[in-house]
C-alpha cells in the first residue's frame, strides 16, 4: 500500500531529532589565527596592562566599589579563563601554519625536481648540439681551408698552364 511522503505513519516512531551546530572549520581557523596574532602584539600587552592597572586601582581606592578585594580572585579567574582559551587558539594557529609550511615545502620540492629535470634535459640537448657542431665545418675551419687553397692556387694555375702548353705543343688542333 503506497503512502504519500507528506503523511507519516502512526505505527512507526519518528526519527530522532538532533540539534547540530555546523560551522566552517576554515572560518574558525582564520578567526583563531587573527586572535592568536593579536595576543602576540604589543598593542594587546599595552591595553591588558592598562586594564589590569585600572582594575587594581579601582579595587584599592574606591572603597564603595570594591567588587574584587585584595587577592583579586576575580581578576585571576579572568586571566585563567583568557589563558585557557588563548593556548588552544595559539596551538590551532601554529598547526595551520605548519600545514601551510608543509604544502609550501611540497611545492618547493616538486618545483626543484622539475627544475632539475629541465636542467638535465637542457644539458643533454647542449651536449648533443656540441657533438653535432663538432661534425659540421666551422667558420674558422673554412677560413683556414680557403687560405690554404689561395696559397696553393698560384702553383696550381702555373701547372695548369704548363699542361695546356704541353698539350698544345703535342696536338696543335686542340689549341
From TrEMBL:
Q: Where are the transmembrane segments?
A: 44-67, 73-93
Classify the source by domain of life: Bacteria
Which terms are listed as keywords in the entry? Membrane, Transmembrane, Transmembrane helix
For the region Disordered, what residue ranges are annotated?
A: 153-175
**Which InterPro entries does this entry report, sorted A to Z?**
DUF1003
Q: What is this protein called?
A: Uncharacterized membrane protein
Q: What is the lineage of its organism?
A: Bacteria, Bacillati, Actinomycetota, Actinomycetes, Pseudonocardiales
Amino acid at each position: 500500500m503506497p503512502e504519500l511522503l507528506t503523511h507519516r505513519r502512526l505505527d512507526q516512531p519518528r526519527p530522532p531529532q538532533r540539534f547540530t551546530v555546523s560551522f566552517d572549520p576554515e572560518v574558525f581557523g582564520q578567526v583563531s589565527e587573527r586572535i592568536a596574532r593579536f595576543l602576540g602584539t604589543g598593542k594587546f600587552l599595552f591595553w591588558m596592562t592598562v586594564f589590569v592597572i585600572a582594575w587594581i586601582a579601582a579595587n584599592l581606592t574606591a572603597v564603595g566599589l570594591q567588587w574584587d578585594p585584595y587577592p583579586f580572585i576575580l581578576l585571576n579567574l579572568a586571566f585563567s579563563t583568557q589563558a585557557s582559551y588563548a593556548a588552544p587558539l595559539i596551538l590551532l594557529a601554529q598547526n595551520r601554519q605548519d600545514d601551510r609550511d608543509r604544502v609550501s615545502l611540497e611545492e618547493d620540492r616538486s618545483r626543484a625536481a622539475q627544475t632539475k629535470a629541465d636542467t638535465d634535459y637542457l644539458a643533454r640537448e647542449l651536449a648533443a648540439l656540441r657533438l653535432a657542431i663538432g661534425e659540421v665545418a666551422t667558420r674558422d675551419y673554412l677560413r683556414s681551408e680557403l687560405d690554404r687553397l689561395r696559397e696553393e692556387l698560384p702553383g696550381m694555375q702555373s701547372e695548369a698552364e704548363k699542361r695546356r702548353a704541353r698539350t698544345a705543343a703535342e696536338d696543335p688542333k686542340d689549341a
